[in-house]
């Protein structure tokens, strides 16, 4: 792929990352106004107890683990974003699905890193059942990780098929 086309694709992918992080922040702002600490109610049931909008300040990692490690998680997120951008650059010209999967992860990490740096905690607002509480950034990270796993698995599977043929 010509260098100019590679650069254009990389910039498009970076705009995808920034778009995810921006949309995540806009949704969090809206949820803070709608169901945040100053709102009259902090939970709006959409499908009963199965699915609701519920305000939560997550000061830990996934599922609220490791509370009060905000600075550590912010530092790890910043490093992950840098590493992710490196891999987006590497895959931009040769494997677009892989690059998009990484963009989902990096965009989500960036959205949550902004929360940790600006607020000192991550705003979660989607509640599924009693236990799962997350936000758009978390969803992007999860979808990107599953997609990345599938793509890597299929790549490994096709490599082993090629070895069997030769």
Chart the SSEs and their pairings.
Layout: H1 3-35, E1 43-47, E2 51-58, H2 70-92, H3 96-118, E3 122-128, E4 132-134, H4 136-165
Helix pairs in contact: 1-2, 1-3, 2-3, 3-4
**What is the element string, with H for helices and E for strands?**
HEEHHEEH
Helix content: 55-70%
Intertermini distance:
28 Å
Strand order of the largest sheet: 1-2-3-4
Task: Tell the overall outline.
Answer: elongated
Beta-strand residue fraction = 5-15%
Poorly predicted runs are: none
Q: How many distinct domains?
A: 1
Rounded to the nearest angstrom, the radius of gyration is: 18 Å
Subunit arrangement of the protein: single chain
Q: Overall pLDDT, averaged?
A: 89
How many distinct helices? 4
Instruction: Compute the number of strand runs.
Output: 4
Largest sheet: 4 strands, antiparallel
Q: Which structural class fits the helix and strand makeup?
A: alpha+beta
Describe the structure.
With 166 residues, the protein is α+β, with helices and mostly antiparallel strands. The chain has one domain (3-165). Helices cover 66% and strands 14% of the residues. It has helices at residues 3-35, 70-92, 96-118, 136-165, and strands at 43-47, 51-58, 122-128, 132-134. Helix 1 crosses helix 3 (96-118), helix 2 (70-92) packs antiparallel against helix 3 and helix 3 packs antiparallel against helix 4 (136-165). The radius of gyration is 18 Å and the shape is elongated.
